[in-house]
Amino acid sequence: MRGLMMDRPLLLRSFLQRNEQLHGRRTVSAVADDGLVTRTYADIGRRARLLASGLAGIGIGTGDRVATIGWNTLTHFEAYFAVPCMGAVLHTVNFRLFPDQVAYILGHAGSRAVLIDADQWPLLEQVIDRCPDLQTIVVMNGPPPGSRLAGRAVHGYEDVIAAGDADYDFPEFDENTAAGLCYTSATTGNPKGVLYSHRSMVLHSLAHCLADAFGLSERMRILVATPMFHANAWGIPHSAALTGAVLVLPGRAPDAARLVGLVEDLQVTHLCGAVSVGVMIRDFVDPAAARHDLTSLEAVWLGGQAPTEALVRWFEEHAGAEVWQGWGMTEASPLATFNHVDHDLRAEPTEDRHRRALRQGAPLPLVELALVDKDGHSVPWNGTSVGEFRLRGPWIAREYFDDPERTAEVFVDGWYRTGDVGVVDPDGYMRLHDREKDLIKSGGEWISSVELENALQAHPGVSEAVVVAVPHEKWRERPLACIVPADRANPPDPAELDDFLAARVAKWWIPDRYEFVSSIPKTGVGKTDKKQVREQFRS
Amino acid sequence: MRGLMMDRPLLLRSFLQRNEQLHGRRTVSAVADDGLVTRTYADIGRRARLLASGLAGIGIGTGDRVATIGWNTLTHFEAYFAVPCMGAVLHTVNFRLFPDQVAYILGHAGSRAVLIDADQWPLLEQVIDRCPDLQTIVVMNGPPPGSRLAGRAVHGYEDVIAAGDADYDFPEFDENTAAGLCYTSATTGNPKGVLYSHRSMVLHSLAHCLADAFGLSERMRILVATPMFHANAWGIPHSAALTGAVLVLPGRAPDAARLVGLVEDLQVTHLCGAVSVGVMIRDFVDPAAARHDLTSLEAVWLGGQAPTEALVRWFEEHAGAEVWQGWGMTEASPLATFNHVDHDLRAEPTEDRHRRALRQGAPLPLVELALVDKDGHSVPWNGTSVGEFRLRGPWIAREYFDDPERTAEVFVDGWYRTGDVGVVDPDGYMRLHDREKDLIKSGGEWISSVELENALQAHPGVSEAVVVAVPHEKWRERPLACIVPADRANPPDPAELDDFLAARVAKWWIPDRYEFVSSIPKTGVGKTDKKQVREQFRS
C-alpha cells in the first residue's frame, strides 16, 4: 500500500527559490582581484537564471557536463546552482592536479563546456587538444584572452549573463537527475568520477543543517576555505543557500594573511577548510603579539585528515573556537559522519573533551556505517577492535562514472568499501586509524601512523610530523618519522623523542629513524602526501 | 542523465536503528496509572521489534491498517515505530470525537486491528459492530476486560510482546510505502483520511530538526502535550527518535497540575501543545505565589491556533521561555511553516519582537507556499493583500484516502487548497487571518476575527475572547465577541472595550455585542469551537 502524498522531487532549485523569497537581502562576499565583492542572494538567484539561459543559448543542454576550473568566487557560486538547476551537470575540476590528470578528467567526463578562471588559461591551453567533446569555453573573473582557442568559441562570463533571458525559470525534473560530477584522485591509476544527483545533494544538505550536525543556520557567517573543486566544497554552498547563511569566499590563491583578514573584517563565525589551513593560520597568528583577533570564530571545521590535539587546544585558547570534524570522501558527497559533541559531555574535564573532539564522529542520519574485517564479517563496536569502514546511504555513490573495473573493486554487496581503517567506540563514534595503505605492517602486527603522528606532535619541539612505512628486511616494514621542528635551527634530540614516545605508545612502535625537514609535501587538496614522503625516504 | 548514487529508501526504521546505536542510553518517560515509567531507547527499539513480530504472529501483515486509540504513553510510542516499520499502517484515532465518527473512521479505514488503552474500552464496545474489518484487539496500559469482544480475539499488549521474536528485524521496502493514516474532522460531513508515507515522514522529521526550524536536538527534554492521535503528534516522536532527545509523555487525561509537575520534576526544556494548553498552564500557575518553577523551559511551541501576545509575554516573563509557533494541518504532516525568528531580529524592541513572534512563520525547506485570490491568481507578498494559502511539497497530501469527492474539492492543479486566509509579509513570513469560514463579511468587506480577538485579549479585564459572525440584515454579518472576564465577578464595561478597540482596529470592526461567559467551548483537539459559539449566539 502506497502513501498518498504529493510526488514532489527533491531539487536544488528549491533552495535557490526559497532563498530569494526569504533571504533575498542576505549576502555572499568574495575576494576578487580588485577587492571584496558582495552580492545579495536575490541578485545571485537572478544571475543564476540568466547564466543558465545564457548557457542554453550557446548550446548547453540537459545532461551536458559543464566543467568549472576556478577558485572560490561569486561566479563559481552562481555556476554551482545555474548548471544543475538547468538540468546540466556541474563538473568541478581540481586544477592543482597534473595537466595529464586534468586532461583525463575533462576527456573522460566528456565535458561539453568549461567555465574557467582567467588565471587558469595556461592549463586549458595545455589540455584542450585532448578534450574532443569540449566545444565551449566561458572565462570567469577576467577578460577572455582571445575569441577562440584551438577552434573552440570563447565567451566572457558577463557576456553570457547579459545574453540570458530574464524570464527564464528553472525546469522541474526527476530528483535522480545528475547534478554534479567530481573526480577523486587515486594513488594509483586515473582519477575516478562520482556522479551526484539532485536527491543526494538535497538530502546531504538537510543533514548538514540538522541542529545535531553542523547546524548550519542563517545566523552564521561562514568562510569557505575548502576549494569549490573539492567534493562540492563539503556541500556548504548548497546548505548556505538552503538557510540564507552569509558566505565568505576567499578568491584566488588565499594565504593565511587573507583568511585571517577576512575573519576579522567580516566577523566570520565559522571557518571550514583542510587541517593544513588550520595549521597555516596557527603558524601565521602570533597570539603574543596580539595583532590579530579571531574571537568572532565560534567553530573551525577542519577536514581531510584528523586535527591534532595541539591544534584543537590552540583554537580553543586563542580564538575561543571549537574544532569540529567529520569524516567523508568524494564518494560520500562528502559527509558520512560528524563529531557532534553531546551536551552531557560538554561538562567533562578538558582532556576528556579533547579526546572526544579528536574522534571523527557518528554516522549522520540515513547513513549506515559498518565495521568489517578482511572477509567482510562484522567487527564489534568496542573501541579496540580494528576493521575497515563501509558505508551505505542515499548520498553515497553506488558506482564510478563509466568505470566498471574500478567500480567492481570498491562497491561490493550494496556497500561502499572506503579503504579507511579504525575502530568504533561503544557510543557509535568512530576513530580513524589510517587509510588501509598507510598502516605500517611490522612483524605481523599493525602500527597506526596517525597515532604516532599525534603522539609526536604533542612534543613541544615538533611543529608537524608524518610517519610512513619504510621497507625492512626482518620486520617487512618499520616506521620512519619525518618532522618539521618548531625551531627550524634546533631540531629535537632523537633520543629525547624516543623517551617521549616510550611513555605514550608501545615500545616496538617507536620509529627507527627521524628525518628533519623544513616542510611536509601536500597533495592538491591539502592533505599530507604520504606517497611522496614514502618515495623520498624509501632507501 | 541519472546520478549514480545508492538507491537507499527513506524509511522510519533508520531512525530507530540509529537511535539504538547512538542514543541507546537516552530515555522516554511517561506517566502511567501507577507513576512515572522510564525506558531507554535501546529497550524501546527491542520492544518495538518484539511488538512487530508479535503482531505478525496474530495475523497483521503488510499494508494492514492498525488503529490506535490511546493517550500519550510508552506503549503508544512503541507502536508509532513497530507498526510502520513492519510495513503496516499506523492509524491513530481521535477518541474525543463522537462515537459515530470513530465508527466511521475505523470502518472507512478498514482497520484490521486496534491497539486500545484499557480506559477507552467502553468506546470500542459502542462502535465494534460497525467495524466489520476489525478482527484483532490489543489492550494497552491495563488488563484486557475479557478474552473476546463481539467475536473478536482480545490480547494483552505485554502478551503480544512476550510472544514476539527476539531475532526479528524490520524489513526494507519502497520509501513510498504507506506508514500512517490520520483522519481530520471536517466541520461538515465525515472525517477525511490522510495517508502518510515513510518518505514524507522522514523528510518532515529532517525539516523539524533543522537548526533554523524547531532545531530538535539530543540536548532537549521535550514534553509532548500534543495528543499522539493528532497529526502524528506534530511529528515529534519521529524527530525525537532521530536525534535521541529525551521525551516526556503525560499519559492519561493530563491536567495543568500534571504538566507543570512534569516540567519541574524532569526539568523539561521544551513543551509542545495546543494554545489552550498554554492558557491552561498560565491560569494554573500563580507567579505571585511562587509555588511553581517553569524556568527550565527554553521554549513553548503552541499550535492549533495563534497564541495571543498576552500569552507570549506571560511565558517570557514567568518562565523565561520563548513562544514558538508554526502553521500546519493533518494534510501537511502537519508542519508547513515555522516561525524561526532570525538572529538579526532578536535585538529588536520587545514590541516589534512580539509582533514578529505572532506571525505563523516561513515555509519550511521543500514546502512551497502560494497566496491566491478566489480565481487562483497569485496575490502579492506585501503584508496587506489577503489571499488563500495553498501548499505543495513532499510531505503534503495529494488526495484523501478513498474519498474522490472530497479530494476533488481541495486538491487542485497539483496544490492543496488549505482554506486558510491571510497575508504574507515581504520577508516571506505569513500571518494567518482566519479560516475562510471564520472571516466576517460585513458590508462587502472582510473583518478578521483573529485580529479582533488579539486586540481584545490585550485588555487587562479579558482572559479569553472569541469573535464570530452573526447574521445582520443590512451588513450581512457583524462581529460578536464572546468574552471570559479575567475577574469572573467583574466583567469589563462594554463601552470601555469599545474605546480600547477604537485605538487598535478600524471603527467599523468594533463588535456589535459582547457576551460574557465562564468558558469558551473547545473542539476535541483543543481549538476554539467557533461553530458552537456561532450557533449559540446566532439569534
Automatic annotation (TrEMBL), chains A, B:
**Where does the record place the AMP-dependent synthetase/ligase domain?**
29-401
Q: Which GO terms describe its molecular function?
A: ligase activity, forming carbon-sulfur bonds
Does the record bear Ligase in its keywords? yes
Q: Read off the Gene3D superfamilies from this record.
A: 3.30.300.30, N-terminal domain of ligase-like
In terms of superkingdom, the source organism counts as Bacteria
Q: Where is the AMP-binding enzyme C-terminal domain?
A: 451-527
Q: Pfam families under this entry?
A: AMP-binding, AMP-binding_C
Carries keyword Ligase? yes
Q: Which CDD domains match?
A: ttLC_FACS_AlkK_like
Keywords noted in UniProt: Ligase
Q: Which family does it belong to?
A: Belongs to the ATP-dependent AMP-binding enzyme family.
The record, for NCBIfam families, names:
PRK06187.1
| Identification of the protein by name | Fatty-acyl-CoA synthase
Q: Which organism is it from?
A: Blastococcus colisei
- What lineage does UniProt assign to this protein's organism? Bacteria, Bacillati, Actinomycetota, Actinomycetes, Geodermatophilales
